[in-house]
Amino acid sequence: QPIDFRQAVTSKLVGEKIDLEVFRENATHTITIIAENPPRRMPHVSRELSHAYVMFAGLVFTNFSSDSTTGSKSTYRNEYNLKQTADLILDSGDVKYEKIDDRLVILNTILPHRITRGYGAGFAYQPIFKINNVIMRNLNDVAAAIAEDNGNKYIRFEFFNHSSKNIFLPRAEGFAATLELQKKFGIISPISNDVKKFLDSSNKKSD
Fold it and tell me: Of 123-132, 137-146, 158-167, 194-203, where does mean pLDDT reach its minimum?
């Protein structure tokens, strides 16, 4: 019975020898490799730890990690597809992650509110690409883009794989909705402490 190549490889122990038959340049070669843990392309985050987040008008953005899940609807297939998407983005070169804090950011969930009515399954768990035409490389970028008052009445959220589908939210109404949702769901702050520290330090520098 044929089995998935990944299953055959990941069933090996670290340090164990693996014989591979490779077809290359019109010839078959047999090579032996030693199984090892590959370097992580994204951070491993324990589900027991609190996650950094940014919430605006019910849109909740979080870092994508190797433990990212899709909440109560999580399945192995959903998680695998999300990780495949992450690999495609990392390999595409559309976004260069240069700083140590750079992470792929996803729209983790959408809290119910009249301002986000109509935005649902098509956007949940999608990686964010740009906000107001600025490329997002981490949660700090997301928070800064939302907080920036550039005179536009709307904030545009653009997602990978959704080149023709974006979320447009009125800026002023969005901040009002954020306060309403904080009160409704008992959310102390619309952004996590680490992101708040970044924004505070950025504001001090600009002053």
Answer: 158-167
**Each residue of 141-160: pLDDT tens digit?**
999 999 998 888 999 999 88
Residue 199, CA distances (Å) to 76, 118, 203 in order? 36, 30, 6
Q: pTM for the whole thing? A: 0.67
User: Token digits for 114?
Assistant: 């009249």
Distances (CA, A) of 99 to 45, 60, 141, 181: 18, 23, 12, 32
Q: Distance between CA atoms of 137 and 43, rounded to whole angstroms?
A: 15
The 3-state secondary structure of the chain, one letter per residue: CCCCHHHHHHCCCCCCEEEEEEEECCEEEEEEEECCCCCCCCCCCCCCCCCCEEEECCEEEEECCCCCCCHHHCCHHHHHHHHHHHHHHHHHCCCCCCCCCCCCEEEEEECCCHHHCCCCCCCCCCEEEEECCEECCCHHHHHHHHHCCCCCCEEEEEECCCCCCEEEEEHHHHHHHHHHHHHHHCCCCCECHHHHHHHHHHHHHHC
pLDDT in tens, 55-77: 999 999 998 765 554 443 444 45
Two structure tokens written together for 77: 């297939």
Q: What are the CA-CA distances from residue 117 to residues 57, 107, 113, 174, 184 (Å)?
A: 11, 15, 6, 13, 17
